[in-house]
Every structure is written in C-alpha cells, then in structure tokens.
Design goal:
2 domains; 6-stranded parallel β-sheet; 243 residues; Rossmann fold; 7 helices; alpha/beta
C-alpha cells in the first residue's frame, strides 16, 4: 500500500499491528486517546489526543493523505469507533475494525451478563465485597453501592466513587496466582468486568472460577454497521497489504 496508515488505539493489538507495519516498511501513525498518563507507546509515529469528532478526523485524514484506517481501539470505545466510521465514509478512506474476540465461558464459570455498567451495579446489590475491573471510566455507575469495592486501574480514578473503596493501581498482565491472592486478600464475593477479551486480563476469570466466585460481565457494544471486522493482527496486516 502506498500512503500512510492510521492505527487508532492503544491496545496490544494496535501496538503489534504498528510494529508489523513498520517492519513491512509501511508508513504508520498510531493515535492514542491520551487517557492514560504513561501509555505504552507503539513503534513508528505517534499522535496523542482527540481529533475533534468525526469532522475533525475527516479533515485530518485528508490533510495527512491517509490511505487507510485501522480502528484497533478498545472493544468498548464505541464513540471513537463511530467517529472513525463516519469520518472514513466522509472522505472515502477504507476502514477496518481490528477487535479481539470476546471471552467464552468455561465449565465451572458462573457468569451473569448485563448490557451496561448501571445494570452491573444493580446485579451486585446484596454482595458485601465487589471487585470492579471495568476501568476508571464509568465508575460513577457504582457510586451508590454500600458494599466494599475494590477498584483496580492504571491511573487513579476520579470521583464519584463508592463510599467504601480500596483503589489498587496496577497495569496488567496479571497471573492467575496474583489474581487468586488478590481475591482472597480482599474477601471478594463477586467480580465485575467488561467483555474485553484477550489474555492480558483473563487471569481474573480463571481465579474467580477456581474460587467459585460469580462474575458479572458487561456485553460489548456492536461495531458500526458496514465496517469489516477482523480478529487478528495478521488479518489486519493482510488487509492493509491488499489495499
């Protein structure tokens, strides 16, 4: 492919794709939202910060002569994915969604699916100790909980937060042994997480299964209509190469 490729997102898939594109000699710009204070940077050119909505992104694509866009943002970055689809459509730039598969339950799992963080908060009413691993965005949905809440995030979360809260600042991946010890140490009775997929944060699911702890999972939002979706970096690289 001639021209630059814009890779949206700070996910592991986005970083691996950027590395593969650089290795292939393809000009790549990785765009990070800037929500993490100390992000892990991908190889190649990096842009941090928003574009100003779909119109701003469309203008940037034209100004930078971008030949293709790969949306490799987090599975729950629905606003950015929608803006990417709209912008790409406005200027006629090919767009691909790179999204890792969601998690699949295993024998012994006690998973309870919900459609939003507000529903997740309602689902854990009555539990005494809740492990919130939904990220620091959206914790306001759990602010009314009376249970003790263990919150883990890369950067300190901002209020409103649950009244009884313990914050653990950490960046994955985590081992099953580490997650098991954490759940036991805090007497966790239920885990709340998003269906992010991938191996980097899946150890908590194994630990919960081993300890007989239920897990409340928030379903993913659907991808924008009409945008092709692939699940692997290899498929995304082939798509770019075929363009």
């Amino acid at each position: 492919m001639t021209g630059r490729v814009l890779v949206l997102g700070g996910t592991g898939e986005a970083r691996r794709l950027a590395r593969a594109l650089v290795d292939e000699g393809i000009a790549v710009v990785s765009s990070l939202a800037g929500r993490v204070a100390d992000p892990v940077l991908p190889p190649g050119e990096v842009r941090i910060g928003g574009f100003g909505g779909a119109a701003g992104l469309a203008a940037w694509l034209q100004e930078q002569a971008v030949a293709a866009v790969v949306d490799a943002t987090h599975p729950f970055a629905a606003t950015m994915s929608a803006a990417a689809a709209e912008a790409a459509g406005l200027v006629g730039v090919p767009l691909l969604r790179l999204q890792r598969p969601g998690w699949a339950p295993q024998p012994g799992d006690d998973w309870r699916w919900v459609d939003s963080q507000a529903e997740a908060a309602a689902a854990v009413t009555g539990f005494g100790s809740v492990f919130l691993t939904t990220g620091r965005q959206g914790l306001a949905a759990f602010a009314g909980l009376t249970a003790h809440c263990l919150v883990r995030s890369v950067d300190p979360p901002e209020p409103p937060l649950p009244e009884r809260v313990t914050v653990v600042l950490a960046r994955g991946p985590f081992t099953v042994e580490e997650e098991t010890a954490l759940l036991r140490r805090h007497g966790v009775e239920v885990v709340v997480t998003k269906d992010s997929g991938g191996a980097m944060t899946a150890a908590k699911l194994t630990a919960a299964r081993d300890l007989g702890i239920p897990v409340v999972l928030v379903r993913r939002p659907p991808p924008p209509p009409g945008v092709p979706v692939v699940a692997t970096v290899e498929e995304a690289l082939a798509w770019v190469g075929a363009g």
